[in-house]
Amino acid sequence: MMILRNILNEIVPQPIRDYITPKVVALFSSYFQSSFTFVIEQKWDFCDNQTFRAAEVYLTTRLAGLSSRELLVGSSDLKNPTAEPNLGIPPNTKIVDEFEGIHLEWTLHSVETKTYPYEKRYFNLTCKKEFRDKKMKDYFTYLAKSAEKIMRHREDLYIYTYNREGSSWQAAIFEHHTSFETLAIEPQLKTTMIDDLDAFSKGKDFFKSVGRAWKRGYLLYGPPGTGKSSMVAAIANHMNYNIYDLQIQSVSDDGELRKILTATKNRSILLIEDIDCGADASRRRQTKNEEDVELQKQKKKPDLGISLSGLLNFVDGLWSSCGEERIIIFTTNHKEKLDPALLRPGRMDVHILMDYCTPFVLKKLVAMYLKIDDHVLFDPIEKLVIEVNVTPAEIAQQLMASKNADIALKGLLEFLENKKMKKEEDTKVEEEGEIEDGETKE
Q1: Which of 166, 296, 334, 432 has the most CB atoms around it within 10 Å of its CB?
Q2: What spans are recorded as compositionally biased (Acidic residues) (predicted)?
Q3: 338 pairs with which residues across the strands?
């Protein structure tokens, strides 16, 4: 072999050797090697590879007893820096698994590239050749089901924001503790939401039978400070779903929107807040005169941004089928500004008014913040709550002023009385203005 190698090096030119050598190695390997390797890349077609994602989730449960010289550890828990770090999958480290007595070896590889996404990540799964078909038939199904089970019982939820420079979603631990038990809303709305969410989570077969994507759309609308963000947190905690918070005004066009949205995972919430402010595509269609005025304003501006059709195509079009068990939530302070096409059934399935404080919501907030169920000031405060528009956020702010119930409720009463006086003054000014306008016309 040494003589043969020397002869080849002396006689055969280098380019020919480079061409022949891999083919000879592959030929001998196919006959003499007893192992087979599956390559599982992070990307598959236009979307993330679901098998890769399942492997990422599943293999973290096989790291505790990993016998290697290094381990990947870290924590994204900003609220608890002293918490025990989590284990991550270290690159180029062999992870051993066993399935029905068959020995399996996993290895994560990462290679830098010169084009997007600038890093190619993939798993190698190695087993004996004779078990290749069994792996394809049984093991990958077991892998997917195990990962799904782990995700349903995960302890930490994450909120993602899109990093446009890196073209990727970046995560932080979501520790908003609002639940439907602590959310200050009317009992009927609470029951309606819980029943609807539970029916959705169990509706896979139903959605499939009627030929619809397994998704649900909620529109939360109402004045600022009425608990729209808290409602989102309660939904996420009830469903145990991660949140993808998309600032839609930062999306340049429909193509980028598709790339962003198809990178979200199943069993998640896509949140687009203040949609009436974020994209021209979501706003009410204008009249002819309004269009002419707006056209003159926009003549010198570049034609950028997402279109209404681009947004609707993901909400209710063909692209809505790329993924399942997803909840889409839009929030707005001005429902009337949204294009009617965005509000049709099948796009935003449930419209939820998050309104001003009611007597029930008031008592719920007082019970949570002051730990009392009754007080001598309840009656005058309830009457003022009915007379003036006050948000739950404003009520909560007043209740947090003191842990002493007498002091906190007295401050709340004064706040509501001042709010009532201001309302009466504003009404008086408006009436006087209308009278003056009428006299001027005469």
Answers
A1: 334
A2: 427-442
A3: 283
- The residue among 233, 235, 220 whose CA lies nearest residue 174 is 233
Give the strand pairing for 86-88 and 94-99. Answer: unpaired
Look up tokens 């499939």; give the residue. Answer: 208
User: Can you tell me the mean pLDDT for 363-370?
Assistant: 94
pLDDT band at 296; cut points 50, 70, 90: low
Q: How many CB atoms lie within 10 A of CB 43?
A: 14
CB 221 within 8 A of CB 356: no
**Is beta strand 72-74 parallel, antiparallel or unpaired with respect to 86-88?**
antiparallel
**How many angstroms separate the CA atoms of 352 and 401, rounded?**
30
| Sequence spans of domains, the chain | 1-28, 34-155, 160-353, 359-441
What residues are paired with 107 via a beta bridge?
94, 124
For 72, the token pair is: 């990947």
Give the helix ranges, DSSP H, for 262-358.
275-278, 288-298, 308-315, 340-343
Q: Is the dihedral of CA 210, 215, 220, 226 positive or negative?
A: positive
What one-letter code names the amino acid at 116?
A: Y
* Whether the Cβ atoms of residue 235 and residue 263 lie closer than 8 Å to each other: no
Architecture of domain 160-353: 3-Layer(aba) Sandwich (3.40)
